[in-house]
């Protein structure tokens, strides 16, 4: 418990901001005539919180996409390292391989990873919502750290969605409340579904051939089948209010991913080819002739050829250098 | 006698090692590879605690966590080396007294 108190203090500023956003949305919704104590009002406030938090995280996301674009430039070097350690599966080789890969990224001035900070930032929100709803369940309605005063905290903690599913209950604490169990089960299914779609979108459409051959890809695939279990567990333990945050956040990720894959696909992936084809078609419709018929036929006949030209052309350049020497 | 004292002294360290190993086996895989550094933050902290003890290890690990953010440069970032190793590390990662003590 002391450990929780320690993290609680550490996360104080973030918690304060979260409460402020939550209360602000609650005030706005009440101002527009919604019942201040209704579960729906609080759920919509949670939705608002998700929108603000995720919108604030967009720059991080954009940065990540940009560095992923630059991954294409270092693909030949990456391939060289992978070939060097091909078939060597012992711990030392693998460590040496990731060390070399990381050094290469640094030299190239790019890095495909975003660090765990975006994930860590979401943690206090979880904790915050969790503790508020937990307090409500334990009767003594402790106020939050900032704008969420005792009165609001009680209103939040005791509110029920459509007056039948209290937001502070989870399946494990529902004690046979059918509405809570049904809501939680539906949410777990929706979360699993949205996560599945997001991951599948990335994996099947937005990854180049090099990525698909990497061990990271395999790890992602294992994750894909592990996550439903995680969600089922959380649906069992976490209060509905916390689950709503997670669910809406998942939906946001799905939408964001869809837009990114559609409009800024990873070069060399299926999605990039689909986009090229789409653009070609649109140009054709608009009457721009140029080389569109050409591009169109290539895409239809052998979809992967035009993409593989990039690394090949670089290799060729290197071969020429070799011949000169 | 000496061995018992060493074992007792190493208990906090090994407790942390155990917690970190569980974290790395159960929670880390949930979000895949995200760290911008090599070794990753949890691996770094694990090594730091193994070699420098709980207090310095946690301090080093916390500083690393603060260094690791989306705008960090990333790259290779090893723990500061210890001058001489008094202990041995098992395959699991526990720290034990070196078996070939020179006395």
Task: Give a structural overview.
Chain A: Keywords: Cell membrane, Chaperone, Membrane, Protein transport, Transmembrane, Transmembrane helix, Transport. Chain A: Interacts with the Sec translocase complex via SecD. Specifically interacts with transmembrane segments of nascent integral membrane proteins during membrane integration. Chain A: Belongs to the OXA1/ALB3/YidC family. Type 1 subfamily. Chain A: InterPro entries: YidC/ALB3/OXA1/COX18, YidC/Oxa/ALB_C, YidC_ALB_C. Chain A: It is a multi-pass membrane protein. The complex is a heterodimer of chains A (about 325) and B (about 100). With about 325 residues, chain A is an all-alpha fold. Chain A has one domain. In chain A, about 75% of the residues lie in helices and about 0% in strands. In chain A, strands 1-2 form a two-stranded antiparallel sheet. The longest helix of chain A has 28 residues, at about 180-205. Chain A starts with a helix and ends with a helix. The model of chain A is unreliable at about 290-305 and about 320-325 (pLDDT under 50). By secondary structure, chain B is mainly α. Chain B has one domain (about 5-95). Chain B has 2 helices and 4 strands, in the order αβαβββ. Chain B has helices spanning about 1-30, 40-65, and strands at about 35-40, 75, 85-90, 95. Chain B is globular and about 50 Å long. The mean pLDDT of chain B is about 80.
């Amino acid at each position: 418990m002391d450990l929780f108190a320690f993290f609680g203090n550490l996360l104080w500023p973030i918690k304060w901001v979260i409460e402020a956003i939550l209360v602000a949305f609650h005030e706005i919704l009440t101002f527009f005539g919604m019942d201040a104590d209704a579960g729906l009002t609080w759920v919509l406030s949670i939705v608002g919180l998700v929108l603000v938090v995720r919108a604030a995280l967009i720059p991080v996301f954009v940065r990540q996409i940009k560095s992923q674009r630059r991954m294409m430039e270092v693909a030949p070097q990456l391939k060289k390292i992978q070939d060097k350690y091909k078939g060597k599966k012992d711990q030392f080789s693998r460590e040496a391989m990731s060390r070399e890969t990381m050094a290469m990224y640094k030299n190239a001035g790019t890095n495909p990873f975003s660090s765990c900070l975006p994930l860590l930032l979401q943690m206090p929100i979880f904790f915050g919502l969790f503790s508020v709803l937990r307090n409500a369940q334990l009767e003594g309605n402790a106020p939050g750290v900032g704008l969420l005063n005792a009165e609001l905290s009680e209103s939040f903690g005791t509110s029920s969605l459509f007056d039948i599913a209290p937001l502070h209950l989870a399946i494990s604490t529902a004690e046979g409340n059918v509405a809570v169990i049904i809501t939680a089960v539906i949410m777990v299914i929706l979360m699993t579904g949205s996560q599945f779609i997001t991951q599948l979108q990335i994996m099947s459409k937005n990854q180049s051939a090099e990525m698909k051959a990497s061990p990271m890809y395999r790890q992602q695939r294992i994750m894909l089948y592990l996550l439903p279990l995680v969600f089922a567990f959380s649906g069992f333990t976490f209060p509905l209010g916390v689950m709503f945050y997670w669910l809406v956040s998942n939906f946001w990720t799905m939408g964001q991913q869809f837009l990114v894959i559609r409009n800024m696909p990873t070069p060399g992936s299926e999605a990039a080819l689909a986009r090229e084809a789409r653009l070609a078609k649109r140009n054709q419709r608009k009457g721009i002739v140029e080389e569109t018929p050409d591009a169109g036929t290539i895409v239809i006949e052998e979809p992967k050829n035009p993409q593989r030209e990039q690394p090949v052309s670089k290799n060729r350049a290197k071969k020429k250098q070799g011949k000169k020497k | 006698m000496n061995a018992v004292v060493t074992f007792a002294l190493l208990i906090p360290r090994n407790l942390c090692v155990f917690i970190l190993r569980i974290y790395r086996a159960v929670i880390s895989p949930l979000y895949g590879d995200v760290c911008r550094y090599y070794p990753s933050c949890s691996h770094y902290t694990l090594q730091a605690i193994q070699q420098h003890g709980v207090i310095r290890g946690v301090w080093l690990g916390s500083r690393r966590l603060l260094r690791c953010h989306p705008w960090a440069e990333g790259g290779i970032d090893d723990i500061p080396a210890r001058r001489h190793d008094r202990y041995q590390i098992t395959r699991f990662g526990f720290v034990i007294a070196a078996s070939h003590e020179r006395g």
